[in-house]
Structure formats: C-alpha cells, structure tokens
Amino acid sequence: MKISVVGTGYVGLIQSVGLAEFGYEVVGIDIDERKVKLLNRGISPLYEEGLEEMLKKHLGKNLRFTTSYEEIKDTDVIFLCVGTPQDKDGNADLRFIYSAVESIKRHLDDRYRVIVVKSTVPVGTSRKIKERLKDYNVDVVSNPEFLREGIALRDFFNPDRIVLGFGDLNNPKPIEVMKEIYSYFLDRGVPFVITDWESAELIKYAANAFLATKISFINEIARLADVVGGDINTISRALGLDERIGNKFLNAGIGYGGSCFPKDVKALIRQFESRGIEPKLIKATEEVNEEQICWFLNKIKRYYGDLNGKTFAVLGLAFKPNTDDLRESRGIKLIDLLLKEGCIVKCYDYVEKARENAIERYRLNNSKAYYGYNLYVLDDLYEAVKDVDGVIITTEYPQLREEDWEKIGNLVREKVVFDGRNILDREKIKRLGFKYFGVGRN
Ligand SMILES: NC(=O)c1ccc[n+]([C@@H]2O[C@H](COP(=O)([O-])OP(=O)(O)OC[C@H]3O[C@@H](n4cnc5c(N)ncnc54)[C@H](O)[C@@H]3O)[C@@H](O)[C@H]2O)c1
Questions:
Q1: Per-residue b/e over 134-150, b at no fewer than 16 CB within 10 Å?
Q2: What is the pTM (predicted TM-score) of this model?
Q3: Is 4 in the pocket of ligand 1 (CB under 6 A)?
Q4: Do 110 and 217 lie in a common domain?
Q5: How does pLDDT run across 225-270, given as a tens digit for each residue?
Q6: Which of 32, 350, 398, 408 is the most exposed place for a label (fewest CB within 10 A)?
Q7: What is the b/e burial string over 393-427, where b = at least 16 CB atoms within 10 angstroms of the residue's CB?
Q8: Dihedral (Cα; 96, 13, 61, 155), 10-degree rounding
C-alpha cells in the first residue's frame, strides 16, 4: 500500500515519518517549497525530539517529499493534514482543506482511494468533502489526531485510542484499509473507536475542550487560593489523587496556548452558536483563559506599581516545553503586554528553534536584540537574568528547578520571581532570598 500525506506540518510530518517507520512507501506533499527542500535534505523544519533522526533513516528509501500533487496518482491512501487555523470570527478556516481537496481531485482516476482527514475539522466537513468527490471512486474517513507537541513521536507510536469515522458503516472497504494501515496498533491492543463521521469529528473537539476546561477550572480555583491563602499545587495534587478526576491538565498557571486548544475551543463555540445553542461551560473556559494572563500581569503590576522602564527576564517562549511552536504561546502574549507597558524584556527558551522563531516573529536583527522594541532573545539563561528587576517563568520547563538559583540571585538587580507555571520549589527559592509569586500559592 502506498500512502501520500498532504501537509507536512507538525501532524503531517509525524504521520509521514511514522508510517514510513511501519514500512509503507510514503510521499509527503506540501505547497511550501522551502519546507519540502529542507525535508528532502533530511532537515526537519520543526523541532520534535527524535524526528530528524527518523526522517533521515527513511529519506530516499521509502520516504520523500514533493510539492507536486501528481504524486498522489500512485498512492492508495491520502492523509489530509493541512492546517485549519482560526478565521477572523473564530471559526475553523477550511480554505486549506478545500484547496487541498481540489488539488487532489485533479489527479484522481478510476483507481479506488481512501482519503483520511487528520486535520481538526468542524462537524460535517468529512461529509462535505465526500460530496465534493462524489463522482470519484473514493471513500472519506475521519481520523482525528491527538498527538501532543513535544512528545509527538512517542504519541504517534503509543496512542490512547484510534478514532475512525466512516460515512457508511456497512461499507467494509475503507474500514479494512484503515485496519491494515494501523495494524501495528490493532496488534498491540490499542482501542479502536469505529463510528460515523460526525461522532469522530466531535470527539476531537470535545477532547480538547474538556482538557482546556480542566485547565481553566484549576486556574479559577487558583485565583481564590491566591486570596484565601491556600496552595494550589497541594490542592491539585489532592484532586488528582481522586481516580475520577485524574491528575492531568490540573496545573494552575497563566493559561493554555498552542496551535490547538485556543482555536479549537473557539471553533467549537461557533459550532454551537451557528445551531442556536449557547455553549455556557465552554465559553466560560475560554473567558477564564483569556483573562488569566491579564490576572497574572496585574500581580506583577501590584508589586512594582508602574512597569514603565522595568527590565524582566521571561523564561519560556514556546507554548509548552520541548517544542518550537510559538502559536498562541502565553509567554509571547505576556512579552507583548510587557512591551506595551514600556518594559525591557530579555527572553530565553531551552529550545534553540523556539528562540529562532521568536527572533523571526519580532524581526530581530542578527545580534538577537531589537532595540526599538526593547526586546532581547538570548542564547543563555544567565545572560537573560542579568540586571533584571524580576524573573518571570512562562513555560513549564522542569529544568528550571535545577538551575543555579543562587547564581541567578547574584545576577539579578532585584530578587523577585513570578512563577507563571508554579514550577519552582517555593521554599527553596525563598530561602535564597527571593520574593516568590506563583499562581494560587501565595
Ligand atoms: N499541532 C498539533 O499538535 C495538532 C494536534 C492534533 C491535531 N492538529 C490538527 O492538525 C492539523 C494540522 O496541524 P499542524 O499543527 O500540523 O499545522 P501546520 O501549520 O504545522 O502544518 C500545516 C501544513 O499544511 C501545509 N499546507 C497548507 N495548505 C496546503 C495545501 N493546499 N496542500 C498541501 N499542503 C498545504 C502548510 O504549508 C503546512 O506545512 C490542524 O487541523 C490541527 O488543528 C494539530
């Protein structure tokens, strides 16, 4: 079986490399020429642990990349992995999906093919894709992706479940094809949820909205704990020990970001509203998250008064550890707010590519400092904290706990830490003479 993967971003590239590792012949198709060139040289345009090694292992053997849709002619299964960003009204923008479908259509012939929608798409999209391809010998399958950036390869090979949505559950052909492609998972007892298109599409949105709701829930409790004097880390731990609740996605902080939760929660809200239903809980999830970063900024303001002219080290650019993805990163949001307040910001991230992406985002010059913005992206954490009025933690890097905080204390102008991810050992930091401000643990 030959496979093509359309869109080679975080999802498509992992899918391409993962399927190549299973032994399939895979061609990745992307409209971004620069990306395709890099990939064909064995360079991953994005950072994921182990990805570049696996890419190199299969490149030129059973894996290659192209900008030409003609290649789908030779393939039996086409995975659709293009982006579905947020449009100006918060809906999922399906432009890339439909443009890819039109490109695929131009190269279809009599041969039977399965088109698998991996992109996160609103309910009804798989049906619409099938409608557009009704004159062709194709079946459309909804196969939402649940990988987490930062550990995406690990997630690819160890999924919690495989969700497959079909237009007609009495049609065995696409079901057999999908079972064959994912036989590695079937053999290992991974649960398969075989259902209709609509359920599969909704499962993805519901999963993301539920996880986002857990985060907003604990952040709301943290706001009260901050005032009444509890410690949200202890509260979260105790909550998580209850099997019915579970301990995941219960860390209080400055809110969720990334390429999925913010846009998917918004798109789900729009799906309710367009059908005249008010999504009360999910709307509240989004509101709490939007407010959380301002709530945290106010904490900083309350300590310093006027922020104009203050210098801060912001530790963490990516939306989560071990990725270079800055999309909707809370760290970037906070940097923007601090710059607006007239602050000087010196930032750092452990992932080099995240720093490079920040330099690109702010169009910084080669010296990695853009004086007009008073923003500096530094390659060394200890450089970033030098002479600052406060250190702000924005990404949940466990390495931060192991840093030499005594040395940091000697480098800063004022020993103050705003721990936006509650990652530090509060007592240890205080013993070193720092003033410590976390989220819900004052
Ligand atoms: N990133 C994640 O962690 C994640 C997890 C689960 C689901 N998803 C979903 O998967 C989808 C892809 O996300 P991503 O993060 O990989 O996006 P991305 O932006 O990293 O990659 C999308 C790729 O599609 C390419 N593309 C756009 N239009 C194209 C076209 N017409 N033909 C060929 N290529 C085209 C782009 O050049 C880009 O390389 C989205 O719907 C997203 O919501 C993402």
A1: eebebbbbbbbbbbebb
A2: 0.95
A3: no
A4: no
A5: 999 999 999 999 999 999 999 999 999 999 999 999 999 999 999 9
A6: 398
A7: bbbbbeebeeeebeebbebbeebbbbbbbbbbebe
A8: -140
In a domain, 204, yes or no: no
pLDDT band at 402 (very low <50, low <70, confident <90, very high): very high
Residue 338, ligand 1, Cβ within 6 A? no
Q: Tell me how far the alpha carbon of residue 290 lies from the centroid of ligand 1, in angstroms.
A: 24
Q: Cβ(155) to ligand 1 under 6 A?
A: no
Looking at 136, 155, 190, which one is the last position of a domain? 190
Query: pLDDT at position 442, please?
Result: 78
Same domain, 264 and 306: yes
* Number of domains present in the structure of the chain: 2
CA–CA gap between residue 42 and residue 33 (Å, rounded): 14
Tell me if 197 is assigned to some domain.
Answer: no
High-pLDDT (> 70) share of the chain, %: 98
Query: Are 151 and 233 found together in one domain?
Result: no
pLDDT digits (tens, 9 = 90+) for 48-58: 999 999 999 99
- Averaged pLDDT for residues 36-64: 97
Whole-number Å distance between alpha carbons of 195 and 139: 14
Give CA–CA dist 290/104, Å, rounded. 38
What mean pLDDT is predicted for residues 30-47?
A: 97
Instruction: Decide if 130 is inside a domain.
Output: yes
List the CATH number of the domain containing 230: 3.40.50.720
| Ligand 1, atom nearest to 120 Cα | 41
Question: Ligand 1: which residue has its CA nearest to atom 33?
Answer: 30
pLDDT of residue 365: 59
| pLDDT given at position 195 | 98
Residue 274 lies in domain: 210-437
